[in-house]
Amino acid sequence: MTGAALTDADRRWLRAAVDLSRRCPPSVTAFSVGAIVVAADGAMLAEGYSRRDDPHDHAEEAALRDLAPDDPRLAGATLYSSLEPCSTRASRPRPCTRLILDTAIPRVVFAWREPTLFVDCEGAERLRAAGRTVVEAPELAHLVRAVNAHLPT
């Protein structure tokens, strides 16, 4: 774990994000990812998974689409993603890191750093450089790898 302390609630929400990622239609060109936005009081605000509404959807993008970017609850929220938020995209003009930075979400927790299979991701670094708290939970990465066993990672 790096960045900040991982709580029991973080572990529960990350496991829920991994469970959500199992809903993703399989793809040989993209990871299966789940994302959940949780308010400071522990209420789930939104959830999303890769390819939820469109073949190009990323999990964070799908979850954030269900919220207004200026929703006041986001100022104390945490975004949980099974995989590190992307910093580069071929299918859309704005990567998930930028979508997160366009909100007031101060904290991001993820389980697995994105392997360089498709892109060289710098999501965690960009979020930290912008002043957001980033918590990595590599002890849960094996769960995300299992969901993505269809990819040569």
From TrEMBL:
SUPFAM superfamilies (alphabetical): Cytidine deaminase-like (SSF53927)
InterPro entries: CMP_dCMP_dom, Cytidine_deaminase-like
Domain CMP/dCMP-type deaminase, first and last residues per copy: 8-134
Coiled-coil zones: none
Entry-linked Pfam families: dCMP_cyt_deam_1 (PF00383)
CDD domains per the UniProt record, alphabetical: Riboflavin_deaminase-reductase
Protein name per UniProt: Deaminase
Species this chain originates from: Marinactinospora rubrisoli
